[in-house]
Write a structure and sequence with these properties.
Largest sheet: 2 strands, antiparallel
Radius of gyration: 31 Å
Distance between the termini: 73 Å
Length: 198
């Protein structure tokens, strides 16, 4: 039968029972693995950027540039910014990431849709509802390319990034409608998104 000894945890000071043979071997100093890890881990004091509260963080986290906030709530609060809806005037918050992507103008999809109805729509140009009036060069180049593909003058190629068949023709220069880079829909949209953010 195992003999146990009553001990006091070196970290939390809580009483617990340890096996005598483990104590003789130099073990049995902590009541749990959690207390053992906390006692041996080196932590530095940090000040939360949001609430100013002091908290402890591991040196490895500090070295990575982390350990800036004491809790997830403080991290969320710091990452959001207050904005005013351009349609209804209501105050709302968005993340800094969304704000950098050009969002944060409308508090909801309904406000966004309501604002872009009628003449406020970007597709309503010179009193006409037409994508052609907004991007005439793009539409013209696309039509020339599609006619060339239909006549067999150009063969549709797979995506140059992932190899997906039947790629889309991406124009770097609309003045050269038959000079295209073949991309799948995923990489084609990603390329245009990166150009808008640049």
């Amino acid at each position: 039968m195992l003999t146990t000894i009553k001990r006091a945890c070196l970290f939390c000071k809580k009483d617990f029972f340890a096996i005598k043979s483990e104590v003789n071997r130099g073990h049995g100093m902590y009541c749990s693995s959690y207390c053992a890890r906390k006692s041996t881990s080196k932590e530095d004091n940090r000040v939360c950027k949001t609430c100013g509260k002091t908290f402890k963080a591991k040196p490895c986290e500090i070295k990575k540039g982390h350990a800036l906030f004491c809790s997830r709530e403080c991290w969320i609060a710091e990452s959001r910014r207050e904005c005013i809806c351009q349609y209804c005037g209501k105050a709302f918050s968005v993340t800094r990431y969304d704000l950098k992507r050009g969002r944060g103008k409308y508090c909801s999809q309904s406000c966004s849709h309501a604002f872009f109805k009628g003449e406020n729509s970007p597709n309503f140009v010179h009193g006409k509802w037409s994508l052609r009036s907004r991007w005439p060069e793009a539409v013209k180049s696309k039509n020339i390319l599609n006619r060339a593909i239909a006549k067999g003058e150009i063969k549709r190629q797979p995506c140059q990034i992932c190899g997906y068949p039947n790629g889309h023709g991406h124009h770097e220069d609309y003045n050269e409608p038959l000079k295209v880079v073949w991309l799948c829909s995923k990489h084609h949209m990603r390329l245009h998104a990166e150009k808008r953010l640049a």
